[in-house]
Write a structure and sequence with these properties.
49% helix; single chain; alpha+beta; Thrombin, subunit H; 7-stranded mixed β-sheet; Spore Coat Polysaccharide Biosynthesis Protein SpsA, Chain A; 6-stranded antiparallel β-barrel
């Protein structure tokens, strides 16, 4: 493993094999660099372009049948060639427009396409060769292990959310005299102080909330002394093995400033819950933590993500503490480290798990903060400029910031075909056949290549649903931050809430509803054009209609996401299959296996059918290695081999033992990481069409109920129940 010891003459951490064989590959790359530009800009007729597109696509399909990363690189090169050829054609041959309306609308679409092209290229740089760093062992002599201060920042979260995190932190396998736990309570709550005293951790407050979470951590840094600082959001429960997994690399590299591990969530986010995709479709964050961060690590560009990370104190202090200039203090802190020539690392091993946002509105609020912060960094500390970064780091940071500018391009894509259907405006000045010959290969290659690279961590088309939901909300704050980065404020993402009743969030869905209406009207206009006008442009009408129908499918899924499902469990159920034993009042016992657990109860599978009495008292034993921990429970349900148990009130020791046997297990989250099977485009498309249909039904049902409720004045009129504070069950 080569470690970057500075920015001069940078070499990737573990040079890919194709780079290490540079004498053999050099001639090939030089030939490619000479031939490909000519291929990209060569003018061709429709027939020639079609033959070339088919030939390159067949080559990509053949490459996709081979295992290994080199085949993936071949597909990337082919995709870049096809997309570059399309972009060159768009810029040089499709913008000759006499009509001012055509020119303005066409320029808008072209800018959106150029943005997508740049993001595509930068994404290939980031993800072409993930480093896949492995943990390294610590010294056998624990006396040589460093001291660690473990920070758990909190502001307005309920004690029920913070409690398991603190108890799990106390269970981390690290010498007791070398780790100190601090609850950084910016809410200054008495119940937190009492709890911290009860469990034996330090409760830290300050007399202001300046700079929010970053200020909270910086205040604690001034009053602690550990060689390293571990940071966990108050809902991120660490496993026992977290420190032993994370700390080994610090002894290998004295310039290593930060080690980041993934954020894993054991509860469904609003998309997963409302669309019923939890565990079956990779969620919005899995691509970043499963692939992008690993790809960044090759280029020494791993970002600090605010939680599940360990930082070297001396380096954090040298860069001025956690950054306070933007609301994404975490990524900005890593940027400052990299500018000073320090290294960061990423280990794609989930060693902590937390709560996802409960409602779509809170999810949108969280993404708005991230988008605003990245736009602020782009304005005040742009990675393309300034000293200290090598070229690959600049590109990785640039892509992270450009990503959050997708709001306007996404809105353009969702409305672009309407320009022709409504006004007859030709936003692409070319025949339908030429658009087909150039654009379709570009789209197919990008999707095929990204499916190869991202397959386990993101399914095709799902990013379009996520971005379409957020586009309007992301567009506004990023635009404001680019104009004036000082505007806007830090908002805390609420965790641990309940959604008592299912409801349709009309406020969040409003942009999608407006876009839906426009696209429905576009379909009507298109059918009118097919019937009464443009007989010589039938192909163009059908092309724009097809685009509009695709947009309707995506927007239908967006509407489905806004139909908030009930979330009435105070403690999410988590699947867990481990041995357990039931002890009954009459003295006999049964060996069994757990099926799931929560803070409030446990599900078990018996070896045979057995009917247990409702509310019967049963003691359940769970195991941590050779150690057995017993918990008093009552039977909530019993059917065949399945039994549901509710925990009786526990002592603090029992509560800690339950955490050690469940959420703090070293294997529980890693076993679920990146296990999504690859899916073909036909399956993904069929799934989204089905969800879109559900979205339309939900929308029509909501408005039908709203209309009929006006005829019944006594009926309940609340359309959006509040998200309530979480209570233990």
């Amino acid at each position: 493993m080569k470690s970057n010891t500075g920015n001069s003459g940078y070499v990737p951490r573990e040079a890919p094999g194709f780079l290490r064989l540079w004498p053999v590959r050099l001639v090939g790359w030089l030939i490619a660099l000479a031939v490909l530009p000519a291929l990209i800009i060569a003018p061709m007729t429709f027939e020639q372009q079609l033959v070339l597109s088919i030939g390159i696509f067949v080559a990509a399909l053949v490459a996709n049948r081979f295992q290994g990363r080199f085949a993936g690189l071949v597909m990337i090169v082919l995709s870049v060639v096809v997309s570059s050829r399309y972009t060159y054609w768009r810029v040089t041959e499709t913008m000759y427009m006499d009509n001012p309306l055509d020119l303005v609308l066409g320029a808008g679409l072209l800018m959106a396409e150029l943005y997508a092209f740049v993001v595509l290229l930068l994404g290939y740089v980031q993800t072409a060769w993930p480093l896949e760093r492995k943990p390294v062992p610590l010294p056998e002599d624990t006396a040589l292990w460093p001291t660690i201060d473990l920070f758990i920042p909190t502001y307005n979260e309920p004690i029920s959310v913070v409690r398991p995190t603190v108890l799990a932190a106390q269970s981390i396998d690290w010498p007791r005299d070398k780790i100190k736990i601090f609850v950084l309570d910016d809410g200054r709550r008495e119940e937190f102080r009492v709890f911290c005293e009860e469990v034996g951790v330090t409760h830290v407050t300050r007399d202001n909330n300046r700079h929010a979470k970053a200020g909270n951590i910086n205040a604690a840094l001034k009053n602690t002394t550990g060689e390293f600082v571990a940071i966990f959001d108050c809902d991120h429960i660490p496993t026992r093995s977290f420190m032993q997994i994370a700390m080994g690399w610090f002894s290998r590299d004295p310039k290593l400033g930060m080690v980041q591990l993934p954020h894993y969530f054991f509860s469904p986010d609003p998309f997963e819950r409302n669309l019923d995709t939890f565990g079956t479709v990779p969620n919005e964050g899995e691509l970043f933590y499963g692939l992008i961060q690993d790809g960044n690590d090759l280029w020494n560009a791993t970002f600090f993500c605010g939680s599940c990370a360990v930082l070297r104190r001396t380096i954090v202090e040298e860069v001025g503490g956690v950054a306070v200039e933007t609301v994404t203090e975490d990524a900005h802190t890593a940027l400052k480290m990299h500018r000073r020539g320090y290294n960061t690392a990423y280990l794609a091993l989930p060693q902590a798990a937390g709560l996802a946002t409960e409602s779509l509105s809170s999810h949108v609020g969280q993404r708005i903060r991230w988008a605003r912060g990245m736009a602020q960094i782009f304005r005040i500390d742009n990675p393309l400029f300034g000293r200290g970064l090598h070229w690959a780091q600049r590109l990785c940071y640039l892509n992270a910031m450009l990503h959050f500018l997708y709001g306007l391009p996404r809105l353009i894509y969702l409305t672009a075909p309407l320009a022709y259907l409504f006004f007859g405006a030709s936003v692409i000045h070319a025949s339908a056949s030429m658009i087909f010959a150039f654009a379709l290969p570009h789209i197919l290659h990008a999707n095929l290549t990204n499916s190869r690279i991202q397959g386990r961590f993101r399914y095709l088309l799902w990013n379009e649903v996520y971005e379409a939901v957020l586009a309007w909300y992301i567009f506004r704050p990023t635009l404001v931050a680019l104009i004036n980065p000082k505007l806007g404020s830090f908002n805390v993402t609420a965790k641990g809430g309940l959604v008592r009743e299912e409801f349709f969030d009309t406020l969040i869905a409003k942009p999608s509803l407006v876009l839906l209406l426009l696209n429905f009207l576009g379909v009507g206009a298109g059918l009118w054009r097919l019937t009464w006008v443009d007989p010589q442009n039938i192909a163009t009408v059908w092309l724009n209609l097809a685009w509009t129908f695709y947009n309707l499918m995506i927007l239908g899924a967006c509407v489905a996401a806004a139909n908030e499902s009930r979330q009435v469990r105070g403690a999410p159920r988590v699947a867990l299959q481990v041995p357990a034993t039931l002890y009954f009042a009459d003295g006999h016992s049964v060996r069994c296996t757990t099926s799931d657990f929560s803070a409030g109860g446990l599900g078990v599978e018996l070896p045979a059918d057995m009917q247990l009495a409702q509310d019967a008292n049963v003691v359940v034993a769970l195991y941590r290695g050779e150690s057995e921990s017993r918990f008093a429970t009552t039977v909530r349900f019993s059917k065949g081999r399945r039994v549901g148990l509710h925990f009786a009130p526990m002592t603090l020791a029992q509560e800690r033992a339950l955490v050690q046997c469940t959420t703090a297990r070293a294997d529980i989250w890693a076993a679920r990481w990146g296990n999504h099977p690859r899916q073909g485009i036909h399956r993904v498309l069929g799934h989204i069409v089905s969800i879109s249909g559900t979205g339309f039904r939900n929308m029509f049902s909501h408005y039908y109920r709203a209309a009929t409720s006006r005829l019944r004045p006594t009926a309940a009129s609340s359309s959006k129940p509040p998200v309530e504070a979480k209570e233990p069950v």
